[in-house]
TrEMBL record:
Domain Lactate/malate dehydrogenase C-terminal, residue spans: 173-339
First-level EC class: oxidoreductase
Name of this protein: malate dehydrogenase
PANTHER family per UniProt: MALATE AND LACTATE DEHYDROGENASE (PTHR11540), MALATE DEHYDROGENASE, MITOCHONDRIAL (PTHR11540:SF16)
Family designation: Belongs to the LDH/MDH superfamily. MDH type 1 family.
Keywords of this entry: NAD, Oxidoreductase, Tricarboxylic acid cycle
Organism this protein belongs to: Micromonas commoda (strain RCC299 / NOUM17 / CCMP2709) (Picoplanktonic green alga)
Sequence ranges assigned to domain Lactate/malate dehydrogenase N-terminal in this UniProt record: 29-171
Length: 344
């Protein structure tokens, strides 16, 4: 046994130096709402994530077991199990490093994300309370809308349980970043995989603020005022574009699953010790007075959000957009706080 311990000690520094070491760790990840439109493809994508060793698929409907059986046949190392109903929720959450939450109802045509508040607020409150109890150290990725309110609700629940760490709570706004990359590269050229466009603020209508002036690489000829206006409008209304196209059958699910899986992978890369993992997320922030939570570029690391990065230099139109979004975002955050304080 002494020889084994000596060998392990000898190998340890090599493992740390090994560039492929990132793929040696394995994390336990739960999806809450796994039987839904987002949850199913998200579960599939997470099953293929090389950093996931144990995948827990939970939903209130029994279909969770079927989704887990289906996804479990995909050949990857992630052990996959389904859990259904509140009595099995603690089993799903036990030992989780990351919990991704797409549980709740989606929009129908004519609805705003805020119209979902009455149903989804309670769902997020209860699920986060279960996380606080069973896996208080897990990173939480909240997808359920309205994100501008559900993340503050989650924060209050965690505070009430005495386990709040702002570095471990993130609202997922990565779909806004994906849309910006797609729409801008389609209209101005550039590679949608590598183009970098900050999208800050919140995750609803005008609170979504793409900073096109910071696009890297910056397109030749730049953006005319009209181009910037039209692209900003399309990025802000990308979700509604999908809701209308699905004509009552739901909101973005496939693109959202891709966004959530990519974002979760980045979170796990950070937890795994990879340096300089940069993403955008809706997190506790001091960037904008009046907004206790704000989406901006963040650096992810072993503890979750290692650093909230600044907004950089805004164009006049972007500065006006920031000023315009602040009252709405601030009100949505307050609505979340008020709901949580009144109901926990
Ligand atoms: P869906 O209705 O297809 O699926 C939701 C799933 O949640 C269902 O399987 C349902 O059984 C489950 N569920 C409901 N209450 C639950 C609870 N208490 N515990 C566990 N599971 C529960 O809806 P979809 O399309 O998957 O959307 C889910 C949420 O994601 C919606 O709130 C939607 O607005 C939001 N969304 C967020 C986006 C973002 O960018 N952050 C983008 C698109 C949608």
């Amino acid at each position: 046994n002494r020889r084994v311990a000596k060998l392990a000690a000898h190998l340890q520094p090599q493992i740390r130096r090994d560039p492929t070491a990132a793929h040696k760790a394995g994390f336990t990840v739960a999806v809450l709402g796994a039987a839904g439109g987002i949850g199913q493809p998200l579960s599939l994508l997470l099953k293929r994530c090389p950093l996931v060793a144990d995948l827990r698929l939970y939903d209130v409907v029994p279909l969770a077991a079927g989704v887990a059986a289906d996804v479990s046949h995909v050949n990857s190392r992630a052990d996959t199990r389904g859990f259904h109903g509140p009595s099995q929720l603690p089993l799903a959450l036990e030992g989780c490093d990351l919990v991704v939450i797409p549980a709740g109802v989606p929009r129908k045509p004519g609805m705003t994300r805020d119209d979902l508040f009455n149903i989804n607020a309670g769902i997020v409150r209860d699920l986060v309370a279960a996380c606080a109890k069973t896996c208080p150290n897990a990173v939480l990725n909240v997808i359920s809308n309205p994100v501008n309110s559900t993340v503050p609700i989650a924060a209050e629940v965690l505070k009430d349980a005495g386990v709040y760490d702002p570095r471990r709570l993130m609202g997922v706004t990565h779909l806004d970043v994906m849309r910006a990359r797609t729409f801008v590269s389609r209209s101005k050229g550039g590679d949608p995989n590598t183009i970098d466009i900050p999208v800050v603020g919140g995750h609803a209508g005008v609170t979504i603020l793409p900073l096109l002036s910071q696009t890297r690489p910056f397109p030749k000829g730049g953006f005319t005022a009209e181009e910037a206006r039209a692209l900003t409008h399309r990025i802000q209304n990308g979700g509604t574009e999908v809701v209308d196209a699905k004509a009552g059958a739901g909101s973005a699910t496939l693109s959202m699953a891709a966004a959530a899986a990519e974002f979760a992978h980045s979170v796990l890369r950070g937890l795994n010790g990879e340096r300089n993992v940069l993403e955008h997320a809706f997190v506790e922030s001091r960037l904008v007075p009046g907004c206790a939570f704000f989406a901006s570029k963040v650096r992810l690391g072993r503890v979750g959000v290692e650093k909230v990065l600044g907004l950089g230099k805004l164009s006049d139109a972007e500065a006006a957009g920031l000023k315009a979004l602040t009252p709405e975002l601030s009100a949505s955050i307050r609505k979340g706080f008020d709901f949580a304080r009144a109901s926990i």
